[in-house]
Amino acid sequence: MPLHEIIYFSLASEEMDAGKLDRLLSRCRSENEKTGITGALVFYEREFLQLLEGEESDVLALYAQIESDLRHQQIYKLWEGPIAERSFGEWTMAFLDQKLLEALPQAVHPSSFDGSLASSVKNSTGKKLLLNLRNELLQREAEQVRS
Known about the structure:
There is one protein chain. This protein is α+β, with helices and mostly antiparallel strands. 41% of the residues lie in helices and 28% in strands. It has a single domain, classed as Alpha-Beta Plaits. The protein has five helices and five strands; from the N terminus they run βαββαββααα. The chain is globular. The model has no long low-confidence stretch (mean pLDDT 80).
């Protein structure tokens, strides 16, 4: 089956502390592994930016669940369509939170998108931000292996 991708932005309907995020990630990663979905989730100041990729029917079903999830509001789909290959195939869900984002180089630091994920996703730059974050994660993992 062809690969499919959805990138969306949303606002958390409630505060998400570290415990809530950890439980959410654990459950989502487990489910993604079962369905073959990979991708990335960025969480910054109550904003979510997520890229989902996998078989079309699985990605569409997961996105429908997200749309009905009361933890999300103001959901805005940035992109949906077929892809030739996965961008985040190494992760069931790569995750970057505010602490990790603030430790990144200036090019992908929150200040480079005016302190808001919403501003980063205007004019279809959301995927560019996610790919820059992916490259930074891969570089960090490679450096850890070499150490």
